[in-house]
Amino acid sequence: KRLAACIQIMGPMLSTYWWKNHVETAEEWLCIIKSKLKLYEELEKSIRQIHPYEVPEILAIPVIVGSKDYLGWLGGVVKEM
């Protein structure tokens, strides 16, 4: 689908969190997905289709500044809307 230019997967790591009034602990992997804001909705939909959690952590974090070359590469490899 070319929704991301790059995905970094880190883990496994241990996460502890509140879920339905109980503290839960689970082995998880952190995925950093590099894409464009205009692809967010489609990317979120794709993640939800394959993610096992009822409420997965899906966040969009703004880029304040980045190298012109890198941002140009990112924009060139993800799909156009």
TrEMBL record:
Similarity section: Belongs to the CutA family.
Higher taxonomy: unclassified sequences, metagenomes, ecological metagenomes
Gene Ontology MF terms: copper ion binding
Protein name: Divalent-cation tolerance protein CutA
Pfam families in UniProt: CutA1
GO terms (BP aspect): response to metal ion
